[in-house]
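ok so for the tutorial part 2 we go from a plain amino acid sequence to predicted structure tokens. step 1 is just haveing the sequence, like this:
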Amino acid sequence: MCHKVKTIAKNCDGQLSFCTSCKVYHLTFNNLYIEFTPRELHAFREYVSGIKVEYWEMKYERVVMKRKIPIQTMQQNLSMMFNKQELESLKELIMQKTQKPYQNLSLLDIDYIFFLN
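step 2 — the prediction. this is what the tokens look like for a chain of 117 residues:
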């Protein structure tokens, strides 16, 4: 269990943290949790930045699916599926282009339907 975890990047879909004691990155994104070594995170960044969004959206154009962009895993029968907005959000996290983790959010940063009763 990691005890010296520092949040590096954070947005409304997840966060990227780093444990200074065991040198492991922790990516939490929606319902996914992935641990990376520094080398694995670098390879994952390269892979995600090379995904051709337009290709996948055209390939699955006639398929009724919300998410059309796959990220393959080492397990042959398991892929992670994303839509365009989720993929951009994931890129922001792994490229560390999000707001500082403890910076205040604006009202526009909060994706929530608010009802006044």
